[in-house]
Amino acid sequence: MANPVLVELTRGSMVESVHRGSIAILDADGRMRLSLGDVESPVYSRSSLKPMQAIPLVESGAAQAFGLSDEEVALACASHSGEPMHTERVSIWLERLGLSESDLACGAHASRYEPVAEAMVRRGEKPTRVFNNCSGKHTGFLTVARHWDIATNGYEQVSHPVQQAVAAALRELSDAKELTYGIDGCAAPNFATSLTQFARAAARMASPIRLSAERAAASRRLLSAMIAHPELVSGTGRACAILMRAATGRAAVKAGAEGFFAGWIPTSGLGIAIKIDDGAGRAAETTIAAVLDALGLLDYSEAARKILRTPILNTRGATVGERRPAAALANLKLS
Amino acid sequence: MANPVLVELTRGSMVESVHRGSIAILDADGRMRLSLGDVESPVYSRSSLKPMQAIPLVESGAAQAFGLSDEEVALACASHSGEPMHTERVSIWLERLGLSESDLACGAHASRYEPVAEAMVRRGEKPTRVFNNCSGKHTGFLTVARHWDIATNGYEQVSHPVQQAVAAALRELSDAKELTYGIDGCAAPNFATSLTQFARAAARMASPIRLSAERAAASRRLLSAMIAHPELVSGTGRACAILMRAATGRAAVKAGAEGFFAGWIPTSGLGIAIKIDDGAGRAAETTIAAVLDALGLLDYSEAARKILRTPILNTRGATVGERRPAAALANLKLS
Prior knowledge:
The structure is a homodimer. In chain A, α4 (about 70-75) crosses α7 (about 135-150), α4 crosses α10 and α13 (about 280-295) crosses α14. The longest helix of chain A is centred in the middle third of the chain and has 16 residues, at about 215-230. The model of chain A has no long low-confidence stretch (mean pLDDT about 95). Chain A is globular and about 60 Å long. In chain A, about 40% of the residues lie in helices and about 20% in strands. In chain A, the strands form two sheets. In chain A, strands 1, 2, 3, 7, 8, 9, 10 and 11 form an eight-stranded antiparallel beta sheet that branches. Chain A is of the alpha+beta class.
């Protein structure tokens, strides 16, 4: 059974391309509130997993021991654009750990923020590891290793205690019995869950009343740090920042590579997991915007409305089509 | 009925993303030689249409009247990368028409070839219209208008005689009764056909024995110019160039936006049309490579093999998965 078409792109009077995918929304009691498509097969949540991957950072006491600010906690959950607000904070944080960029296991890539990327090309500067969108997550892993006074070298190996702590937290939050993993773009393990399991874990973070005091506090701090600093979690003009600002404090959302998107709704205790079959980020953005809209979480925000229905422009700036929710996505109703 | 999965991407031991799509391969007698998925609904072929859009340029005598070289004919069929080999030739050609860049109806975008794009950023240069990947196609349209001594202004309007000549040629080659159109990224009309109709038109160009002498000569010249100049049709390191070189003169191929790919096989008189449902270029590249491989047209070429099965690397350069033909694509057999 193919998943339903969630998003379509038009050109002139025709639909030109379509994106299929699936959505699971659960509450903290584990009740499925919305299910579309296959929500049981394991999928990688990629960078949408970062808020879960940051649980040991706060839960272990490492964040407190190293005096992490909410900005730094937000960066631990971030796929950042490599703007100065990101790279400078990560560099200072690394210094405070007595470490440096060379301790990061992630590779370098150019800033995703064009003015920064272009300025670096003009100055003949090469991006370094701190520009990797995951450098905050990695610095979070290193913080836990330093707090536990164990080897920082090899912290990205699945057998390292930091990654095992991530896996344990994810298993407990998601009720997943076993977690397979793949290697993410940043060289860290990425644990696979079903959409149901992921949304369950997100819901338990969003409404952590039945969790241990430490995990509940960690969940609250991670989500409130994300919500307080939308641009640190992503970057200037990015979908996560725009949607979190439009939700005015009521939602944390996090994009992942290959068409994943996740949401945490503390006000209603919901967890959201979205996967676009073909891995298209453009369709995942439309889908999370439609879900937030259905939940009444998109206040009037022109930028957020443009993620929900996106004009397609030609190279002269004329509108020639649009990207929009398809029928299955246009009238979502939660049970 | 959903189209079959043609391409899959793995990470670790799991398939992470899949691309559905359809394929039609016809011969010049109009016989369907291979059909996968929906090959009857109209789709935009986008830049894969360029060799058809260039038919009036040669057929009308305009190319001969203005002494066009094979390099310039190849550029009329190109989605070029905006390298000096492309932009300088288009500029000289425009001059020969007594026209300039400001006569092009397409907008500007940065060179797709990173060393050129980066060098322009370093020098503080903005891309101009000649850098638009379609600037050769547009110069071809202008050449026809100059040859016919009609207004060049408005040549990109669907009602202009040049666009009507394109539509007439496409209708005749494809047997399409009516052609709807949308506006392409470059502001020119893009006429929709079914995959069957497109592949029929391509097959008739590849084996033009039943066409008028002028159209047959035009078809032969367009395809031989593309095959002779693979990098002018695309750019350094691009899939079209790599695959045409691997086919050693036996195939012309042309990518289109939103997951279209087309092929013309003069040696066997076949026309190929591919559309990936979700518009992913990466999947269209895997699919055309698999089709060429099934036709015995990919001589051993490491670069072409890497389009057929593409390692997925993380930011440290380690292989963490691969993009590859799915089952439906792995064992194609022509009737």
